[in-house]
Amino acid sequence: MSLLLELPELFEAKIIKRPSKKIKSPYVADIILKNDETQNELLGHTPSLGCCGLAEKDSNVLCSKLSEKTKCDYRIEISLVDNTYIGISPKLAENITENALKQNLIQHLEVSSIQREKKILNSRFDFIGKTTDDKHYILEVKTVPLIFKEDNKNISYFPDGYRKKKGAVVSERALKHINELREIKTKYPEIRCILLFVIQRNDSISFKPSDKDPIYLDALREAYKYGVEIRTIQVKWQENKCCYKTNTLPILLFEDYNNYL
pLDDT by residue (tens digit) across 141-157? Predict the structure, then answer.
């Protein structure tokens, strides 16, 4: 399997409390490093908040060391559940994608140029550039660490998480991205507009947009009808190394379970 990302040394830890007792931000947790006989409580940055239980109290995680200039001692990168390593830091997905683009590992997308974080309309998209057949592309990345079980099989899904009120969208930013990709594709059909879901675990057999957020689900389906490309790439984490697994994970965009993208 192709290596897509290798992080510096990671440290195994357990989350004791989130938010931290010292810093009440939901992006900070109290952690204890494994094998630390002193049991000192340290501060861990949780960029994905609690990640629906993957970064909450008693979660086993892998952390990277941060510089002394930050308030937090470590950043939580990976959750360890039943011997499965799950990438939960959203920034990981962007770095994985850049290397996947360079290695032409995203299905039906071979590129000749890559630029990161460019503003178009009212959104900043993760990647733009040109394909090898001289077409412009815009690519937005979403990280997918979560699964649900159906018929005892693991299915990856997105999005899920904290909502300010009942019925609200999970991520206004994610909804804005998909709507603007659709708008760009409508105005400029020659531009390839791509939404890439990075499945940061190797134990699922398919991907499904979450029906927990019907507003986002409807927007995604509508964007697909207008020509926005929906892609996945699945990776396998093993401690600090991330390797490519597949770019053909079935995508269930509509209700018919026999109709996969």
Answer: 999 999 999 999 999 99
pLDDT of residue 57: 96
CB atoms closer than 10 angstroms to residue 156: 25
Return d(Cα 179, Cα 120) in angstroms, integer: 12
Which helix or strand (DSSP H or E) is residue 129 part of?
strand 123-130
What span, in angstroms and rounded, lies between the C-alpha atoms of 261 and 259? 7
Instruction: Please say whether the beta carbons of 41 and 16 come within 8 A.
Output: yes
Paired sense of beta strands 74-81 and 28-33, if any: unpaired
Would residue 117 be called left, alpha or beta, if left means φ above 0 and alpha means ψ between -120 and 50 degrees?
left
Tell me the angle at which helices 172-187 and 214-225 cross, rounded to the nearest 10 degrees: 20
CB atoms within 10 A of CB 23: 15
Which tokens sit at 186? 């409508």
pTM score, two decimals? 0.94
- Tell me how far CA of residue 230 lies from CA of 23, 48, 165, 171, in angstroms: 39, 23, 28, 18
pLDDT digits (tens, 9 = 90+) for 27-54: 999 999 998 878 899 999 999 999 999 9
